[in-house]
Amino acid sequence: MSLVMRNRPHFIIQSTTFDHHHLVYCGTETIHIHHNGSGHFVTSSSNGKQIKVYDSLNCQPTEELLLQLTSIYSHDSTVPETFLAPMSQTQQGGSDCGLFVIAYAVELSFGNNPCQIIYDQGAMRNHLLDCLESQSITPFPRFQITDPPAKINATKHIGSTNKWSTPYKKAKGTTASPLISPIKLNNRFAVYLVKPAKPMIQKNNSVLVWMCHLIISPVM
């Protein structure tokens, strides 16, 4: 994960722990690897302003995992609405979940969707070793890319008074600032989005010709 942050410094990734007490709230979009308290590793992400869990066994989140997700993605005790992203490929055997969650984190950092990828599981361990030796993390070997399965709301059993949900919907009759989008209180890892200013167009053709002449003419 240190190599992921080196390549993508805008991600603030906390060290993987085995307990939610050592995790803190992160107010920006992030990726994290978790131990779910039951001998299994999974990846979570708030990319795209929605919390998703990527699990190579497609298991429902454990109680410990929900506590970790709350510590990272919620600044109070309310459980964040979380979606299980069903993987097109499930791991074979019981010892490679660590490889898969690192592969998922790398794909997410590159802007890819791990749900679509069928990995070459037999080549993943050597690839990780190569990345550690070269100190440069790259996407893991894969066979193909497929259409992702539909996501599943993993927190639908939790009452609405004990969790906050996304996406944010703008209230009717309200207007947004022309420069900055409003903070979405129920989307606590969202950041300000500044709209780019419209380019100024010079309508005076003679001025445009003079400016172009200055740009392409050699310096005397």
Largest sheet: 5 strands, mixed
Identify the CATH class. Answer: Alpha Beta
| Mean pLDDT over the full residue set | 77
Helix/strand structural class: alpha/beta
Beta-strand segment tally: 9
CATH architecture assignment? 3-Layer(aba) Sandwich
CATH topology: the name is Adenoviral Proteinase, Chain
The multimeric state of the shown protein is: single chain
Tell me about this structure.
By secondary structure, the chain is of the alpha/beta class. It has a single domain (2-164), classed as Adenoviral Proteinase, Chain (3-Layer(aba) Sandwich), CATH 3.40.395. The protein is 25% helix and 14% strand. It has five helices and nine strands, in the order αβββαββαβαβββα. It has helices at 2-7, 63-73, 97-109, 121-134, 205-216, and strands at residues 31-35, 41-45, 51-54, 79-80, 82-84, 117-119, 142-145, 152-153, 163-164. The strands form three sheets. It has a five-stranded mixed beta sheet, sandwiched between helices. Strand 2 (41-45) and strand 3 (51-54) form a beta hairpin. The longest helix has 14 residues, at 121-134. It is globular and about 45 Å long. The protein starts with a helix and ends with a helix. Residues 167-187, 190-203 and 207-212 have low confidence and may be disordered.
Task: Summarize the model shown.
With 220 residues, the protein is of the alpha/beta class. The protein is built from five helices and nine strands, in the order H-E-E-E-H-E-E-H-E-H-E-E-E-H.
Key features of this structure:
220 residues, alpha/beta, 5-stranded mixed sheet, two-stranded parallel ribbon, 5 helices
